[in-house]
TrEMBL record:
<dbReference type="Pfam" id="PF00076">
    <property type="entry name" value="RRM_1"/>
</dbReference>
<dbReference type="InterPro" id="IPR000504">
    <property type="entry name" value="RRM_dom"/>
</dbReference>
<dbReference type="InterPro" id="IPR012677">
    <property type="entry name" value="Nucleotide-bd_a/b_plait_sf"/>
</dbReference>
<protein>
    <submittedName>
        <fullName>PABP4 protein</fullName>
    </submittedName>
</protein>
<dbReference type="InterPro" id="IPR052462">
    <property type="entry name" value="SLIRP/GR-RBP-like"/>
</dbReference>
<keyword id="KW-0694">RNA-binding</keyword>
<dbReference type="InterPro" id="IPR035979">
    <property type="entry name" value="RBD_domain_sf"/>
</dbReference>
<feature type="domain" description="RRM">
    <location>
        <begin position="1"/>
        <end position="46"/>
    </location>
</feature>
<dbReference type="GO" id="GO:0003723">
    <property type="term" value="F:RNA binding"/>
</dbReference>
Length: 70
């Protein structure tokens, strides 16, 4: 993706015909270093899915922190 001046915004989207190819891309490319920058590769999520996952992760971290002090 680029801005109106043609400068990269630093992100993009890719669609795959095969589900297996998409999974392979996530497994092999997530966390890789490309030109000195670590990339995040993940499947697209609907807003509700993303919010539920973030809430679950937040609750998990909260429980871990609470258990340290008990």
């Amino acid at each position: 993706m680029t801005d109106p001046t043609g400068k990269s915004k630093g992100f993009g989207f890719v669609s795959f015909e095969k589900h297996e190819d998409a999974n392979k891309a996530v497994e092999e490319m997530n966390g890789k270093d490309i030109n000195g920058k670590m990339v995040f590769v993940g499947r697209a999520q609907k807003k509700v899915e993303r919010q539920a996952e973030l809430k679950r992760k937040f609750e998990q971290l909260k429980q871990e922190r609470l258990s340290r002090y008990q």
